[in-house]
Amino acid sequence: MGQSKHDHSTLKFPEGFLWGAGSSAFQVEGNIKDSDWWEWEQTHQPEEFRSGQAADHYNRFEEDFKLAQSLGHNAHRLSLEWSRIEPREGEFDDNEIEHYKTVLKSLKDKGFTVMLTLHHFTNPAWFAHLGGWSSGKSVYYFERFVKRVVPELKDYVDLWITINEPWIYATHAYVIGHFPPQKKSYWLATKCFFNMAQAHKKVYRFLHVVDPHVKVGFANPVESFETFHAHSLQENLAKWVLDNIRNHSFNWFTQKTHDFLALNYYKHQRISINGHWQLPSLVEAVKTGKDVTDLGWEIHPEGIFDVLIDFSSYKLPIYITENGIASKNDDRRVRFLLSYLKEVYHASQSGTKIKGYFYWSLLDNMELNNGFDPKFGLIEVNFETQKRTPKPSSFVYKEIIKNNGIPHYLLKLLGHGIQVEEVVKSK
Ligand code: BGC
User: Fold this and answer.
1) 238-251 pLDDT per residue, tens
2) 214: Cα separation from own chain's centroid
3) Directed axis angle between helix 138-153 and helix 94-109, to 10°?
4) 168 lines ligand 1 (CB under 6 A)
5) Average pLDDT, stretch 120-125?
6) 298 CB under 6 A from ligand 1?
7) Domain that residue 374 falls in
8) Among 309, 405, 367, which residue's Cα sits nearest to residue 7?
9) Pairwise CA distance, residues 57 & 38, whole Å
10) Whole-prediction pTM
């Protein structure tokens, strides 16, 4: 048998690939006092879980963007905080619109491709008092807000995300009870989901009237699913249902209103039949003995490959708009980045049109209902002093960006016990 040559070449990504990181306003800006989340956390969350000044990104965006630039990023994803811009119903604050213009301009001046999310989980408190996304009027309110801000900001935005993770928002706010208003009603969740779909379509059309060449999508929280027992009919049926509802339903209800797919990938889910009735259900990753993140989510790089291949059937360009690990051990983040990006590379090699990757997140941030404990950032934030310190993983990411791919010498970091700093410094 002939010996195959060991290949030392870089795993190259397509030319013009976007490399960046993401954030959302409420998770990093601080002091967003007119939002529903702020109002809710004062009475429903222990003090250490409240957003407070968060990473003070509202005042430190310039420093943060300079850091991202020095780390080689060529793209950035961020969101607007609706409650800053429209703190009271129908009253728009021109100073805040000006603020966001300055923020976006700062990114453009540094050469970033800008991806702007119009809605990322939080709402103005007045909007929530009027019934929030479960009310039929939500579509009108959101569209009015969008129509006010888009003409002012459009020159600084390259890619638009209408709504971040409608599925997560609807289920967490109206079924699971993790997000305000913590209702537990399938009916309200369904209304919320369909109102968001309406809102997406309207905003998509409006953006295309403003500029027929704009690129618009929504951020889809996709998961990969696997059955425990390969031949179990119940498990396979459950897998089919879950995959279709969770990963594809918003796409169906908003057909023909996507210029690209924006995929947020974090989780691999295993399905198993159990109990007396042999009903299929999701198995908690920690109980399977698999490697998990600090939030208990299974680390399964192959999952991102499967999802990318699945979504390639839409024949639209794909951006990975979120992918990241909550870990206090940055070596794990390095291995996470390399192993997931390796799978993204393979999906790209298989013909999937992947155009960018946004690591979640640029900074350690306020992880919504989980507070400040989970550490997702490429850059450490000391929330007492607001000092920023790039983590070793951010330099590994920088090397990948510089090479527009994964150089062979970095792949050896996938082995354990390697000092990341040393390998990166020696380059
Ligand atoms: C959300 C982010 C969040 C991340 C990690 C995503 O579902 O869009 O806001 O921080 O998950 O939990």
Assistant:
1) 999 999 999 999 99
2) 21
3) 50
4) yes
5) 98
6) no
7) 11-221+297-426
8) 405
9) 16
10) 0.96
pLDDT, tens digit, 9 for 90 and up, residues 147-193: 999 999 999 999 999 999 999 999 999 999 999 999 999 999 999 99
**Closest residue CA from atom 10 of ligand 1:** 367
- The pLDDT assigned to 1 comes to 46
The predicted structure's pLDDT at residue 417: 54
Whether 310 is in a domain gets the answer yes
At 380 the three-state DSSP class reads strand
- pLDDT of residue 426 exceeding 80, the answer is no
Of the candidates 394, 247, 228, 371, the one whose C-alpha atom is nearest the C-alpha of residue 309 is 247
Q: How many domains does the structure of the chain reveal? A: 1
CA angle at 420 for the pair 371 and 302, rounded to the nearest 5°: 70
Cβ atoms within 10 A of the Cβ of 250, count? Answer: 23
CATH number, position 56: 3.20.20.80
Per-residue pLDDT, averaged over 70-93, amounts to 98
> Cα(192)–Cα(173) distance, rounded to whole angstroms?
9
Report how far ligand 1's centroid is from the alpha carbon of 39 (Å).
Answer: 20
| Location of structure tokens 């870990």 | 327
Q: Are 11 and 100 in contact (CB under 8 A)?
A: no
Q: In this structure, is residue 93 part of a structural domain?
A: yes
Query: Ligand 1 centre from 366 Cα, in Å?
Result: 10
Q: How far is the CA of 145 from the centre of ligand 1 (A)?
A: 23
Q: Which helix (H) or strand (E) holds 422?
A: helix 420-425
Tokens 């090397």 belong to: 399
Strand segments, DSSP code E, in 120-171 are 159-164
Give the strand pairing for 405-406 and 18-22: unpaired
User: Residues 263-277: pLDDT tens digits?
Assistant: 999 999 999 998 667
Assess if residue 250 is contained within a domain. Answer: no
- Does the CB atom of residue 356 touch ligand 1 within 6 A? no
Residue bearing tokens 């989340």: 37
**Are 404 and 12 in contact, with CB atoms under 8 Å apart?**
yes
Q: Which two tokens stand for residue 307?
A: 């999802």
| Nearest alpha-carbon partner for 219 in 163, 266, 181 | 163
From 53-57, 59-63, 194-198, 412-416, the region with the lowest mean pLDDT: 412-416
Longest dimension (CA), the chain: 75
Query: Domain for residue 262, yes or no?
Result: no
With 70 as the cut, is the pLDDT of residue 278 above it? yes
